[in-house]
User: Fold these one by one.
Assistant:
Number 1:
Amino acid sequence: MRLLLVWLAALLLTASAEPAPAPPHYALRAAFDESGRLEADVTITLPPGTREKEFLLSRRFVLGGVQVSPGTRLASAEPVESPVEGLVRYRFAAAPGASGPMTIRLLYAGPINPADDAGVRPLRPEGFELFIDHMWFPVGADIQTRFTLDAEMDGLDPDLVVVAQGEVTRTPTGVRIRRDYIDIDVPMVAMRGLQRAEAPGVEFFARDLATRLSSFYIRHSEGAARYFQAQYGPMDQVVRMAVVWRERSMAYARTGYTVFSEGGRSAPDYPESGAARHAAHEIAHAWWKLASPITDDFWLVESAAEYAAIRYVEAALGPDEAERMIAEKRTAAADAGPVMGHGRPNRVQLYQKGPLLLVELEQRIGRPAMDRLMTRMAREPVHTTQIFMGLLTEIAGAEAAAAFERALHS
Ligand SMILES: [Zn+2]
C-alpha cells in the first residue's frame, strides 16, 4: 500500500510538471583539410510542434545532401543578400498532420575562408577564429535561434590551443565540444601559442600573458565579473576570454565566451581605462545579450553593456575616467540621429548615443532607481524595449518613461 502511494505520488508529480520543450539542438561534424576546405555534416533537431524553419548558409559551400524527418520537406532554397551578402536561405516545412520533432541534416563543403572576410579571416597562419559572421553553419534566419551543441571537429593540428564554450575535449587531431546551454553561435578560437591564466569567474588565453595589455584584461575582466555579479546576480558560466591578433580591433561576446583583438591596443600608451571599459563591456554581455540583433531593440544589448562598462570604469578607476568617456560620447553622438524607429541602430547610435541616454536617464531618476531598473531588466528572460519601458514606468513613473521613450526616438 505504501509503495502504491509512493508510486501514485510520483505519477501525479510527473503529470503536473509540464516539461519545458527541448530547445533546438545541433549535432555538428566538421573536418578541415590543409587548404582550409571544410566538410560539414550538421543535424538540427527542432522542438516538437515546429511547422516551419528557415536557415541561412553561405553560398561558398556546396550542398552535398539534405535529409529530413518524415513529414518534413525542403520547401525552398533561395539566394539572399541579407543580413550579409552571398547566402542561401533554406526553408523547411512540416506537412499537415506531421508530428514529432522536425530534424534536418545538411551535408556541405567549401572553403572556410570567404572571399570577403571583413577583417576577420576564419583560417589564418596562427589558426582558426570561427564565429557566426562567417555563416559557416546553418544559422536560423532570425539570427537569434539559440541551440544546444554537440560538435566534433577534425583537422586541427596538435599545437592549436582550442578555446570554445562548454565542455571542450581535445583529441589528437581535433576537438569535441559539448554545450548544454543554448546560444546562437558555434564560436571557436584554435590558435598556436596561446597561454592560459585563471581568475575567479574567468579563464583567459593570450599569446603572452605578461604584456601590459594582457595584465589589464586579466585584472579588469575579473574585476568586472565581480562587480556585475554583485549587482545583477551570479553569472551562469565561467567566461573564457581569448585575445587574438589581427588588424581589426572588433571584439565579441557569447555566453561564457569572449574574443578580444590586440589590434590597435598593443601600443605602450594604450590606456588602462580603455582595456577596463572594453573587458567590462564584454563581461556585461553575460546579462545584456537577449535582444534581437536585427531590430530596434538591439540597443538593449550594446548600449546597455556599454553603460554598464562605464559604471565599472567609474567604480574601478574613479569618476574622472568615467566622465572623460561620457564627454567623448557626447562629442561622438552629436549628430547620431534617433536610436530607435528605423530597425537595428547603427554603431554610433548603439555605442555612443544609446549609453549616453542611459547616463541621462540615471541622472533623471537617480542612481538607486536606475540600479533597480537595470537589475530587474538584466534578469528578464527576453529583452525588448517594451519590457524595459514597463519596468521603467513601474520604478520611476510614467513621465520618466515617456521622456526616455522620446529620447530614444529623437
Ligand atoms: Zn558589445
Note: Residues 281, 285, 302, 305 surround zinc ion (CB under 6 Å).
Number 2:
Amino acid sequence: MKLKIGNINATELAKTYNTPLYVYNKQTILKRINELKTNFPNTNICYAIKANNNQEILKLISEQNLGADCSNANEIKMAQKANFKIENSIYTAVNPTNEDLEYALKSKIKINCDDISVFKRLLEIGKPKIISFRINPGFGKGKFPSIVVGGHGTKFGMNEDLAREAYRLAKEKGIKRFGIHMMTGSGVNYQEYFTELTNTIQEIAKRIGDATNIEFEFMDIGGGIGVPYEPHEKQLDIEAIGRSVEKAFKHKAKLMIEPGKYIVAESGTLLTTVTTIKNNFIGVDAGMATLIRPALYGAYHPILLANNIDAEFTQEANIVGPICENTDFFAKNRAMPKVEEGDILAIEVAGAYGFVMASSYNGVLKPAEVLVNNNHHQLIRQREEI
Ligand SMILES: Cc1ncc(COP(=O)(O)O)c(C=O)c1O
C-alpha cells in the first residue's frame, strides 16, 4: 500500500513538487485544535508560533479563534498578519532587544517578562497596561535535556523571590493588571504533569498575591503537551488532561496554555528521495539542514517507505543526509525494508520544529511546503532558489 496524506498519494506529491518537501495535513491540525477546545473549554489557548510559522498554517489556526504565543517582534508581526487577536495573545520576552519590547508594547500584546531586568528596560520604553512574569518553579520536564526549560541551571524565568520583587515594582509604577506564567519543558508525555503545573502556579500566585496585594487576571502554564514519536509512545489522553487541569484550576483568573507541538507535529511529513545506497547507509536528499531534530536532540521520527508502507523489514540501516557533519542522520540502525535509489521516504511527525529550524548550512536551499486538505493540495511555500 502507498502512503496517503489526506487522500493523496505521498509519491504523487513528491513527483509534483519535488523533494525534500514538507507536507501538512489540514485535517490533523483541525482535529488537534478541536480536541483542545473541547477539553479545555474555559482556557485561553494560544498557539506557540515557533513550532511552525508558515502563514497559511497560522491563518488556519487563527481562524479557529486561538490566540498566539510569540517569542519576538517578528512572531508578533506574523501573528498580526495571520489575523490572530493580539489582545488574546502573549509575548514571552527572553533576552529581548529594546526594539522587540517597543514593538510588543505598541502592539498591545500581553508582555511576559523573563527577568526583572527586562521589565526595567521595558519601563524605560513605556508602561504596559498589563504585565506578566515568567516563573521558574525550580523544576522542569521534557523529552530531551535540551528541551527542559525549567529548573536550576536553565536560562529561563525568575525564581519566586525575584518575581515577587518584579510584581512589587510593577505595582509601584502604577500597573494594575497582572498575569503569571510558567513554561517548564516541551514534549512532556506524563499526563499528571499538567495538573501539577496548574497546582504549582496557583500556589505561587497565592503567595505572591498575598505578599504584594495584587490580583492575577491570567495564569499561563505554557506549552509542552507531548505527542507520540516512537513506536512505544501513546497518544496522551487529552480529555483526561483537560478535565483534570480545569478541575484543579480554582482561581477566578483566566487559565492559559501555549501548545505548539500538540497542534502541528503530527500533521507534518517530510518527503525525501533516496539518492544513494552505500553499505548500510541510505542517503537521502533531506538532511540536518532540512530537519535538525534528530541531529540536535537525538530525536526519533518514524520513517516509512512511501511507495510501499507494508513492505517487510529486511535490514538495519542508517538513514543519512547530504550534509558534511557526522551528526547528519535521521535514524541509526533502523529496521527498514529493502530500499532503492529513487524511492521516496516519509519522515513522519515533522510538523513542529521542522521547517522553522531549517538552515542554509552547506548552501542547502529551504524546501517547499504543501498543505493537503482531503483531495486537494496547495503549495504554501515556494522552494527556495539560489
Ligand atoms: C514560552 C513557550 N511557550 C510554548 C512553547 C511551546 O511548547 P510545545 O511546542 O512543547 O507545546 C514553547 C516552546 O519552546 C515556549 O518556549
Note: The two ends are 36 Å apart (CA to CA).
Number 3:
Amino acid sequence: MGGNLALDFINTRSGPPVGPPDDDVLTGYPELVAWAAYAGALREPEAAALRRLSRDDPDGAHAAFARSLRVRDDLDEVFRAVAADQDPSTSVLARLRDDEADALGHARLDRGRTFGWTWRDDQTLARPLRPVVHAAVQLLTTGALNRIKGCRGCRFLFNDESKNRSRRWCSMDDCGTSEKMRRYVAARRAKPRPLVHPDER
Ligand SMILES: [Zn+2]
C-alpha cells in the first residue's frame, strides 16, 4: 500500500491524519513475524523458524518486539518529517544509522540481477526488522523525497509513484473515496437549505 517496506511498516498503525493512532496491527512478536511474512520481508520457512525461536526464548522475543516498536516510532518520525518537507532530528537519524549498521552486519551479498543484501543467514529474533530498516535508508538515500506523502484522509504514508505526483490518498478505492464522501456530507451539512418562501410553494 505504501509502495515501500518501511512505509508499510509505519502503516501498521492506523487512525486519523493527526493525533494518536487508533489501531495497531503489531500487538506482539508473533504479529510482527506474521506482518513481515505478509509484507514479503520474510519467506514462510524463515517465519516458521522465528516462531520456534521465539517460543524457546520468550525474553529475547519480547526484547526484539520492543525494539521493533522503537524502530517504528523512529521511522514514523523520520518519514512524517520528510512528508512535511521538514528535517528529521539528528538523534533519530543517528539511531537509524546504528540500526542500518546492525542490519548490514547480519546481511550477506547475494547475486541476482545485481548484487543485493539478503538476510538468509540471519537467525536472530531481530531478523524481521533488518529489511525494513534497510528499505528506509534506501528510500532516504536514493528515492525522490518529494514523492513521500501523507494521506489526506488518514495517517498512512506512501511513496507517490504516479506520473505527475498527483496522488493524495493512501488508496483511491478506500480512504480517498470515504474521505470525499465525508467532505461531501460535511459541505452539505454546512450549507443549510434555503427556506422556501410560502409564495413560491
Ligand atoms: Zn488514507
Note: The domain at 5-200 is CATH 1.10.3300.10 (Jann2411-like fold).
Number 4:
Amino acid sequence: MITEVITYIKTCFQSKISSEARAFGHLYESISLVQREKRCSSYWLPHRTMCKNFIEKETKLVMKKGFSNKKVLVLGSGPLHEIPVEFLAGNFERVDLVDVVHLPETKKQWEHLTNLNFINADVTELETDLLREKKPISKIPTAFLNENYDLVLSANLLSQLAYHLRNFLEKKSSPKLTERELDLFAHQVTENHFLYLKKFRCPVLLITDIETHLIDKHGQLVQKETPYIDFSFPSPVEEWWWNVAPIPEYSKKLSVKMKVAGFVLNV
Ligand SMILES: C[S@@+](CC[C@H](N)C(=O)[O-])C[C@H]1O[C@@H](n2cnc3c(N)ncnc32)[C@H](O)[C@@H]1O
C-alpha cells in the first residue's frame, strides 16, 4: 500500500498523466497492478506465457496468409507483461502501444527498442465527456481505424473498460442511476469495444477473460460471475485459466480464477 502511494506521487511529478487517468483511478490501478504482479508472479506466469504464445502463434499464421507486417497496434498495452514485445518489434516496422497509462518504468525497460511508440489514450473515447456530463454515453470508438494497421491486438482490456467508468457514474451521476442503468451502461461500453475491433480492416487478436470463479479453501466453486458481456463472440481459438488471486490476495477464505479466451477476428 505504501509502495503504491509513493509510486503514485512520484509518477504524477515525473510523467504527463491526464486528469482522466487520475479521476477514473487508472493511475492508481496501473501502479497496484505492477505490485500485484510482483506478489503473484508465479501464479500469473502461466497466463502471461499463454498470452505471449497465442499472440506469436496467431501473428505468424496471419503473416503466412499474406497480410503485411508494417504496423501493429496494441490496445491495453499497460505494463507489457502479456505482450511478446521483442517478437513484435522484430517482426513489424512499427509497434504502437496504446493505454490510458504507461508507467515510466515500462518505457525505461523497453527504450532500447526504437520502433515502439507509447501512446496514452482512452480507448473508450468516453472519459472526457463523462467527466464533464456525469451521465451515461454510448459511442463506438473511431481512433486508429483509418491508420492502415496490419494487425491489432486487444490484450486483456475488454473486461476492464467498464469497471472504472461504472464506479465513477455510481458515485457522481445526478440524478443517481439505478443498478440496472449502471449495468446497462457497463454492457454497452464492453460491447462497443468489441464492435470497434470488428471495424478494423485487418486481423484482430482479442484476449479477454470471459468468466470469474470464486473458490473456497477446499477447492469448491462458491460463485461464478461473467464480466459485462451479453453479446455473442465467435468461437475462441484457445482458452486457459488464470489464477488471478490465490488466498489471501483477494480474501482469507476465497481465491479467484478467471477463464481467459483468445479470439481471432476479421479473417
Ligand atoms: C489487465 S491490464 C492489461 C495488461 C497488459 N495487456 C500487459 O501486457 O501487461 C488492463 C489495462 O487496460 C488499461 N485500460 C483500462 N481502461 C482503459 C481505457 N479506457 N483506455 C485505455 N486503456 C485502458 C489499464 O490501464 C491496464 O493497463
Note: Residues 41-64 form the longest helix (24 residues).
